[in-house]
Amino acid sequence: MVAVTGLRVARDALILDGLDWTVRRGEHWAIVGANGSGKTSLLSTLTGYMPLTAGQISLLGETYGQTDWRELRKRVGIVSSSIHQLMAGHESTLETIIGGRHAMIGMWGEVTPAERAQALKIVRQVEAVAIRDRPWRVLSQGERQRVLIGRALMARTELLILDEPCAGLDPVAREHFLQFLERLARQRGAPTLVLVTHHVEEIVPAFSHVLVLKGGQVLAAGPKRRVLTCACAAGGSAMPCRWRATRRW
C-alpha cells in the first residue's frame, strides 16, 4: 500500500531525513509525534503536495515520478478539519457524499441511479442515516468527520488518511467517533487506515501498527504491541503509554 525508502525533504531546513516506512494491505497504522516531528510533511509528500528531495515513494503500487499523482490521489481519501471550510453549507449529507464520487465540492450535474444507490449504502456504512438530509452547515464536528469519511469511501478509496480527526471534539464526541472508527476499520472491505494523532489514547484496538516520528526521523515503527509497551496499546484504555524506544520524543 505504501513503501517509503530513504525519504528526504529539505527546504530552508531539513524536514524529513532518511525516512523508511512500509504499510502492507490489511494493516492499519497510527502516526504519532510532537509538533514539528514531520507528520504533516510526510502526508503532504505522500500525496504529492510537497515534492521530495531524495528517496523513493511507492503508493498503491505506483512509483512517484513515474505516475500522474493527480490521478492517484483519487484513490486516496483524506479527512482533515482543514477541509470543513471548503464544503458547501447548503448541501445535505447525501449530496456531500455523492460529490466524493467525482471529487467535487459543490454538487452539480445529474446523479445516476447507481451513484445514489452507492451513496445510500455508504450513508448506512458511516452511521449517518439520521442526518442523511441535514445540511452541512448544521452538522456537528463529529458528524462532519463521518460525512467526510463517507465522501472518501464514495470514490472507492483504497487508502484513507485521517489527519487528527478528533481535533475540536469534546470528550464525549471524541469517544463516540473513536468507537465508530473502530467499527469502520473492522468492516469487510474497509480501506487501509492511517491515523495521525498527538494522543496515544486515540489509537483504538483496530490499529495494528504505530509509526513514531521525531525531528523528521523514525523513532520507532512496527506492530503496536512492540512499539507501545503498556496494556492500553492492546485494550484502548485512556491511560498514558510508554514508548519502547529508548530515546525521548
Key terms:
8 helices, alpha/beta, globular
Widest β-sheet, arrangement of strands? 6-7-8-3-9-10
Largest sheet: 6 strands, mixed
Percentage of residues in DSSP E strands? 15-25%
The chain-level structural class is: alpha/beta
Give the CA-CA distance, first to last residue: 27 Å
How helical, in percent, are the residues?
25-40%
Radius of gyration, taken over Cα atoms and rounded to an integer in Å: 18 Å
Q: Give me the strand/helix succession.
A: EEEHEEHEHHHEHEEEHH
Shape: globular
Uncertain regions: pLDDT < 50 for 5+ in a row?
Answer: 231-249
Number of helices: 8
How many β-strand stretches? Answer: 10
Give the overall pLDDT as a whole number. 84
Helix/strand layout:
Elements lengths: L1 E9 L3 E10 L5 E4 L6 H8 L7 E6 L2 E2 L5 H4 L3 E5 L12 H7 L13 H13 L15 H14 L4 E5 L7 H15 L6 E6 L11 E6 L2 E7 H4 L4 H4 L14
Parallel strand pairs: 3-8, 3-9, 6-7, 7-8
Antiparallel strand pairs: 1-2, 1-4, 4-5, 9-10
Helix pairs in contact: 3-4, 3-5, 4-5, 5-6
Model description:
The chain is built from 8 helices and 10 strands. The two termini are 27 Å apart. The protein has helices spanning 39-46, 69-72, 93-99, 113-125, 141-154, 171-185, 224-227, 232-235, and strands at 2-10, 14-23, 29-32, 54-59, 62-63, 76-80, 159-163, 192-197, 209-214, 217-223. The chain has 249 residues and is α/β, with parallel strands linked by helices. Helix 3 packs across helix 4. 28% of the residues lie in helices and 24% in strands. A 6-stranded mixed sheet has the order 6-7-8-3-9-10, sandwiched between helices. Residues 231-249 have low confidence and may be disordered. The protein is globular, with a radius of gyration of 18 Å.
